[in-house]
Every structure is written in C-alpha cells, then in structure tokens.
Write a structure and sequence with these properties.
The chain is of the alpha+beta class and 446 residues long. It has 13 helices and ten strands. It starts with a helix and ends in a 6-residue tail after the last helix.
C-alpha cells in the first residue's frame, strides 16, 4: 500500500479524528501562547529581535525590530487561532510549516553557538534552553506534518464564509494587547519586578544598616545554564552572557524571596564611581520616582519638558526623582546639559533596568522600597496638575483591561459562530420535526 492509500484508509477512523482534534489544540495552542506572550510585551520582543539582529550581524535592520516584533506576535497568534478552530485548514498549515522551517534551523544554530542565550519564544512567561527550544520546534514540525495529512478530513468550527471574521477579530485582539503593552505597560507582567515588589532586600537592610558596600552575587546565563559571579568577575555580555538576577551573599539563595507577603528582588544602582548606592536611594520611609532610560540617546528633547514637570511635581510632594540608565558618563552629562535636568542620573545594568519597567523613558514610583506603580512617560497625563504622587499612575488597571479585551474577543467569536451555524440548527430541528410528523401518520392497509 502507498502512503496515500494508508492515509485514506485511516481518515475515517474514530481514533484518527480524535488525534486530529488533539493535534489541532496542541499545535494551535502553542502558537496562540507564543503569539500572546510576545504581543503582551512588545518591548521585550523588540529587545529580543534586536539581539537576533546583532547575533546575525544585521544591525542595519535594527530600525525594523519593533515592526518585526509586533508582526511576529500577530502572525503566531492568528495562526494558532486558525489551527485550533480549523479555519483555513490548508493555507494556515502551509504558513505554519514555512515559519517553522525558518525557526527550527535558527534555534539549532542558537543551541550550537549560544549566540543568544534565550530564544524568547514565549517572552518572559516561560524560559527554555536553546536545546529545549530546538526540540520543541521539532515536535511542532511533526505535529504540523500530521495535520497536513489529516486536517482536511475534519471540518472546522466555522464555515468558510466567516473565517476571515475570526482572523480579523484575532488580529484586533492581539493588536489591542500589544498597544497597551507598548504605550503603557504589559497587561501581564511576567518579569521579576511586578507592582508590589520590594526593590531593596529588607534582609540586607537589617544586616548592613545602610553602611558599607553590599556583597552581591550576580547570576548570568549562557547556553541555557546559569552561573554566579562576584562584582569583580562579571562576564562580558557581548560574549553571549545575559544578566538574570542578583542576590545578597547573606540572604537565602534564590532569585526571589517573599517577606511580609511581598516579592523581594533587589536591584543594583551604581554611582559614577561604581559604588552601590541602592540602599541610599531606595531606603525605607522614602518616596522615590525612578526615571528609566534604557537608551538615553533615543530619548527626544521633547520628553525633557514632561520629565522636568514630573520632577517639579515630585518635589512639591516631597519625593525624590532619580534617573537610571546604562549610558556612559559622557552620555549622561550630555543629556543633562541638553534637557536642563536637575535630578541626578545613576548607572543601572541594561538587562536589569529593562526588566523593572518597559518604555524609554519609563516611570516607576517607589515607596518604602516597594513598587507602587509604573508607566511609560507618554501614558501619564496631567503631570503639571496637583495630584497625589501615589495615585498618579494607578488609573491603569491591567487586569480589568485584559479581562474586558478577552471577554469581548470571546463574545465576538461566539456571535460569529451563532451567525454562521444557526441555519444548521434550524435545519436539524426542521428535519427532526418533519420526521416526527411523518411517523405519526396512520398506516393504511392495502
């Protein structure tokens, strides 16, 4: 028997139909999850795409990184939805196959070279080693090949006439999620520093009393493995090392500890001499507005007016404004002269800074060493108006927004389904009623 004959022979089997449904849910579900986690945090995906361009020697493409990040998130999410519901049963699988034929060799190259420590397939929601990612892609390829053989034997949830509506709704949903993630903050914060995180370890506070240089251990990852370094032996990130976290040498080992019901994940702020001044900047009983500049050279002068207004508002509220950036001292001095900034700007590790909040610049309000809210600067309104500093950024209810978007998306899908399939239900009940009436007719003897 030929392969085609074998496929035709098993297509109608119950186990084959069940396996096809499970494969749709599994393969499509992975694409949905991958697209959503990229779309919910477009800044993080943007950074990861730039890492790929750098590793591939394609720095000249850096200007397209944001477009690529959002487009990839939308493509994966829409492909996932299409596969799950059985829309565009042939073309969706061909697109998925072409995508995986690009991604699988790429992840093999990453696994062998370690050029990018983390593939970023699932954003910050789930970190896989490069070899695990390559294995995942091989399994996805097998799943796609299976579906290409048997997917047409099983009808989709939606008829052909409305499948474009399902795709349009999926695109609108993921774009809305990406919009909030880029212009305000991610609707789901998968990073180690969500609102409520203590940025200064209270254990360190108690033991050091703010005196002397803190003894921190820094954790970096390469080739999917984490290694620890002291401040004097930090690895070079250009060699493929990626910052993960740090912890105090005298606190319990681990990335995150919980004290008084709050996450505790210390950061490191350095002055111009390389001294750790984190405890001085974020000491308890202090109110601090952190201005994060991941790329100081890309912060426009127009932002300086809003930043200076925010600084004035903070001074009225008896809070301190501190700028944080991985920029060089010369770049910091140039910015301060250009923007006429009266607030101090200190050094913070690039990877750690991007983990605290998204945006360039981003604003983080810290009270008693704990994050109370964080936003992009552009999303803050009425900065020059009198307002309680602690309430300024709290109008962004990420959970409520995500719930509303998800509910609207599901309702739209159900409405499309009702419109598309109601006639089938009507036809079913009409046939059932006709048969019932026919059976009630009295039989006549010949």
């Amino acid at each position: 028997m030929t392969i085609k004959a074998i496929i035709n022979a098993v297509k109608g089997e119950k186990w084959c139909r069940l396996l096809t449904v499970l494969m749709r849910l599994t393969v499509g579900g992975v694409f949905v999850f991958s697209g959503f986690t990229k779309g919910v945090d477009p800044w993080g995906t943007f950074y990861k795409v730039n890492d790929y361009f750098t590793a591939l020697g394609m720095d000249q493409w850096g200007g397209t990184a944001l477009f690529v990040a959002v487009a990839l998130a939308a493509l994966e999410f829409m492909l996932g939805v299409a596969i799950v519901v059985g829309a565009y049963r042939r073309s969706s699988l061909w697109i998925a196959l072409l995508l995986m034929l690009v991604m699988t060799p790429l992840t093999l190259w990453l696994a062998v070279t370690g050029a990018v420590p983390d593939c970023g397939c699932f954003g910050d929601a789930l970190h896989l080693s490069n070899w695990a990612t390559f294995g995942k892609n091989l399994l996805l390829l097998l799943g796609i090949i299976y579906l290409m053989m048997f997917n047409l034997s099983l009808r989709g949830v939606y008829g052909p006439a409305v499948q474009w509506m399902v795709m349009a709704a999926s695109f609108a949903f993921i774009m809305a999620v990406a919009y909030y993630g880029y212009f305000t903050q991610p609707l789901i914060d998968y990073r180690p520093y969500p609102v409520g995180t203590r940025l200064v370890s209270s254990t360190v506070d108690e033991q050091d009393n703010g005196e002397g240089e803190d003894d921190f251990i820094f954790v970096y990852a390469k080739d999917g493995e984490e290694h620890e370094f002291t401040i004097d032996s930090l690895p070079d990130e250009s060699d493929g090392w990626e910052y993960v976290t740090r912890y105090h040498a005298r606190r319990p080992h681990g990335k995150v500890i919980v004290q008084n019901g709050q996450n505790d994940n210390s950061i490191a702020i350095m002055d111009e001499n390389g001294n750790d001044i984190t405890l001085n900047v974020l000491a308890d009983s202090r109110r601090t507005v952190l201005l994060l500049f991941p790329d100081l050279s890309q912060v426009g002068v127009v932002n300086s007016f809003a930043l200076n207004e925010l600084n004035d508002a903070a001074l009225v509220a008896e809070a301190e404004v501190i700028g944080l950036t991985p920029a060089t001292p010369n770049q910091i001095e140039h910015w301060q002269d250009l923007s006429m900034a009266s607030y101090p700007i200190h050094y913070m590790d690039d990877s750690e800074l991007k983990m605290v909040a998204r945006g360039n610049p981003a604003v983080v309000y810290v009270e008693d060493g704990v994050i109370k809210w964080k936003r992009t600067l552009s999303s803050l309104e009425d900065i020059d108006q009198p307002m309680e500093l602690g309430e300024m950024g709290k109008d962004y209810d990420a959970d409520s927004i995500l719930t509303s978007l998800t509910t609207a998306f599901v309702v739209v899908l159900l409405v499309i389904l009702a419109i598309n399939r109601t006639h089938l239900l009507v036809r079913y009940f009409m046939i059932k009623r006709r048969n019932k009436a026919k059976n009630k007719q009295p039989k006549t003897d010949n």
